[in-house]
Write a structure and sequence with these properties.
- The structure is a single chain.
- The protein is α/β, with parallel strands linked by helices.
- The chain has 2 domains: 52-205, SPOUT methyltransferase, trefoil knot domain (Alpha/beta knot), CATH 3.40.1280; 218-317, no CATH class.
- Helix content is 44%, strand content 9%.
- The chain has helices at 16-20, 61-73, 90-96, 100-104, 112-115, 139-147, 168-172, 191-205, 220-236, 246-259, 263-282, 288-313; strands at 28-29, 32-33, 52-56, 79-82, 107-109, 121-125, 155-159, 176-178.
- Strands 5-4-3-7-6-8 form a 6-stranded parallel β-sheet.
- Strand 3 (52-56), helix 2 and strand 4 (79-82) form a beta-alpha-beta unit.
- The longest helix has 26 residues, at 288-313.
- The protein is globular.
- It starts with 15 loop residues before the first helix and ends with a helix.
Length: 317
């Protein structure tokens, strides 16, 4: 049972018609004169890319096989495994039935970050509450967001292990949390059942053509690299709490996720972070790692002094 807890240059691939006649009239879009960069080719409806399913630490081969089967039922084939059981396990193969091809094609990764390398939007299946976790959205809302995004976005649903779900760090690797609205007293779903609910809502939502002009949205790997760069720069600038960087950083990552930053915009923000590092170097500020280590030692010393005082006062038990 799984317990779900609650920017590379900007590229616009303009059609040949635009380069041939930039100012040629193109008709109406939504009842208004079409901007000159709208063309039939640019607004053409494209088939959606089925989401990837990423399982982090799947513990039971039977669940893995059942996930493969439900993926095949909805036309999905991109199964990614971070650790966990072997897709060639006989029990997994038996539960997948005629859809063992999904298991055979599964890709294995050492880390969730690696599994997300080409993903534009990642949804963490988790309903566990916590100060470091954003409030999850229901599957139907997630499906609607996907349906109204660019049709060529690569999306992933990420699921944790059957015992404890996703960790805080794993959730922070994703753009949003999504939770099936189960009964409060019995919130846990079987892993394959949870995958089925999310994939069903994705299938029912359908996909419009998305953005009329192609836009190179930054991948999850690009955004994660930016977040790590931002964390180090903001630490050196004194903006983040060295003992709890996620408290502030998660809000910033959510802002950038909603903005759907492009690869070019990621590059611009990396430039800003490098400038902050340059200013910190000139000011003689220590590195981010050194700052965090200093604060950890200070916190440990403070805690030790508190214990010593408690013992002297007779209040330590």
């Amino acid at each position: 049972m799984i317990s779900f807890v609650p920017f590379v240059p900007f590229v616009v691939n303009l059609p040949w018609e635009v380069t041939r006649s930039w100012c040629e009239p193109r008709g109406d879009v939504g009842g208004n004169p079409a901007p000159r960069w709208y063309t039939a080719a640019a607004m053409e409806t494209r088939a959606p890319i089925p989401p990837a399913i990423i399982l982090v630490g799947c513990q039971h081969p039977g669940n893995l096989g059942a996930v493969a089967r439900t993926m095949g039922n909805f036309g999905l084939s991109d199964l990614r495994l971070v650790g966990g059981c072997d897709p060639n396990d006989p029990e997994a193969m038996a539960r997948a039935r005629e859809l063992t091809g999904v298991l055979a094609a599964a890709r294995r990764y050492a880390t969730l970050k690696a599994a997300l390398h080409d993903i534009h939007q990642a949804y963490a299946a988790s309903h566990r509450a916590g100060r470091l976790r954003a409030a999850p959205i229901p599957p139907r809302a997630a499906a609607a967001l996907i349906a109204h995004g660019p049709a060529d976005d690569q999306v992933a649903f990420v699921f944790g292990n059957e015992t404890s779900g996703l960790t805080n760090d794993e959730v922070l690797h994703c753009d949003r949390a999504v939770a099936v609205p189960t009964d409060r007293d019995h919130p846990s779903l079987n892993l394959a059942h949870a995958v089925t609910v999310l994939v069903y809502e994705w299938a029912m939502a359908g996909r419009p053509g998305g953005d009329p002009v192609a836009r190179e949205i930054a991948s999850a790997e690009e955004r994660r690299g930016l977040y790590e760069h931002m964390e180090a720069a903001m630490l050196r600038a004194g903006y983040l709490d060295p003992l709890n960087t996620a408290r502030t950083l998660r809000h910033i990552t959510q802002i950038l996720s909603r903005a759907r930053v492009s690869s070019f915009e990621v590059t611009l923000l990396h430039g800003l972070m490098r400038k902050i590092h340059h200013i910190a170097d000139r000011a003689g500020r220590p590195s981010a790692e050194a700052l965090q280590e200093r604060y950890r030692r200070r916190a440990a010393a403070t805690a030790a002094r508190g214990e010593d005082n408690g013992e002297r006062d007779g209040t330590h038990h």
